[in-house]
Amino acid sequence: MSAASTREVTLRVNGAPVRVAEGSMVVAAIHAAGAAASRRSVRGEPRGALCGMGVCFECRATVDGREQVRTCVLPVVAGMEVRTHG
Amino acid sequence: MGIQRVVGVSNSAGFDLIVVGAGIIGAACAEQAVVDGLSVAIVEHSALGGGSTAASMGHLVAMDDEPSEFALCRYSLELWNSHGSLEVAEYRRCGTLWVAAGEQDAEAIPPKLARLEAAGVRAQTVTGPQLRELEPELAPGMAGGLLVPDESIVYPPRAVQWMLDRCLRSRAVLYQGRSVVRLRPGGVLLDDGSRLDGQVLLATGLATAALVPALAMAARKGHLVVTDRHPGRVRHQVLEVGYADSAQGEEPVSVAFNVQPRPTGQLLIGSSREDSAGDDVNLPVLRRMVERACGFMPGLRALQAIRVWTGLRPRTPDGRPYIGAVPEQPGVWVAAGHEGLGVSMALGTARLLCDLLGGRSPAIDPAPYDPARRFA
Question: What local confidence, expressed as pLDDT, does residue A2 receive?
């Protein structure tokens, strides 16, 4: 029995190419890029995704120029440009 | 079994000054009184720095269109600036940028510059292109503006807290959760039956009329929107030149563009004015306000609004606050009715009131704010 092959998607996180399985959320690409502390609090403390379901707002990053996007509920698209603020 | 009546033990205490209301005006007056060496009681029925203060923008801007307003603003802003950085109150000297969208609005700029310069306020005219250098978010094609670099913003509830902390360290007494039921000869009666003796200062905003009916005020409701965080997008507090007309006027509904960058990078977007008994958000007015703001800064449209709220500005019939002794009520004073300039005028009001209280000659002419004008 062979595993179904998974297609992969390439996008960029902070300028560097990252490959993740199709259907992944952008936050997975951020983690794969090693940028998991993807933003700073008002007081400058590192923050990253917590709830994984779009309610805590800790996973926000800039995607294709749009700021404050919740990356845990946004599927990856080939060629996306993701900028974190960690 | 009958109803058991609990007879409370009546407290009685004496003070030099009983300040009723712990909004920005009451807090500032209490602090000045403490600095002057008076024994002070502060009576506040709800949150400290609540009411109109909690809803306010905290912009420290000199409104120069009406002479007495300008004089009190100037005096008060100098006092705010001399307090230093006031980090605890999130004080920021971001400066003010006045914007004229069209040529007709731009005509208001030279006289404005002249008034500010005559008062010793640093200001400089700005061309249309320079506007966009100062604030890239502004739409292209605006006629010009005026930069007033030394003006500031502050977070009013924290400013109140700072003032009250200073009072309490000097052994002022805070009666929080208590309200004044009525004035009595020589003092006040509180809702728990306590009697406080002393001179009384009503810093009660819209609620002043409940104790002194002649000092009725209208509630001018305003909306504010706060966005999520976008540090660096807007650098100054930005106002359209027509803001002062909106503030002075009595139109049923008026909106005027105003945006303020908060230290967090959030943007406060205003402003609106309407007569209103209640404090509900009025969606059509909110929409008008936001549309006008997006006309000046189109990029605002893409931002997320996190919260919308309203505040009620206390407006007197002639638009000037009441600061001074209440006629026909010996020992009763008032400092209330500042419309949208409570925070700006708070420190000047406090000095003025305390000078009058202490029989000292105030630094500015107190006559325009004399409550006696309502009793003529």
Answer: 46
Enter the tokens of residue B141: 């094609």
Per-residue pLDDT reduced to its tens digit, A7-20: 999 999 999 999 99
Chain B residues in contact with A67 (beta carbon < 8 A): 230
Q: Is the pLDDT of residue B82 over 50?
A: yes
Q: What six digits make up the tokens of B269?
A: 């977007």
Q: Does B228 touch chain A (CB under 8 A)?
A: yes
User: Which of A39, A40, A42, A69 best probes binding to B when mutated, by most B CB atoms within 10 angstroms?
Assistant: A42
Q: Spell out which residues of chain B touch residue A68, defining contact as CB-CB under 8 Å.
A: 228-230, 304
Contact A8, A22 (CB under 8 A): yes
Answer whether B301 touches A (CB < 8 Å): no
Longest dimension (CA), chain A: 53
Bond preceding residue B271 cis, omega within 30 of 0? yes
- Chain A residues whose beta carbon lies within 8 Å of the beta carbon of residue B304: 68
pLDDT in tens, B296-354: 999 999 999 999 999 999 999 999 999 999 999 999 999 999 999 999 999 999 999 99
| pLDDT class of A4 with cuts at 50, 70, 90 | low
Exposure of A24 in the CB half-sphere (CA atoms within 13 A): 20
Cβ atoms within 10 A of the Cβ of B171, count? 9
pTM of the predicted model, to two decimals?
A: 0.89
Residue B228 and residue A66: Cβ atoms within 8 Å?
no
Q: How far is B299 from chain A (nearest CA, A)?
A: 12
Is residue B195's pLDDT more than 80?
Answer: yes
B139 φ, ψ to 5°?
-65, 150
Q: Which residue of B has its CA nearest to A66?
A: B302
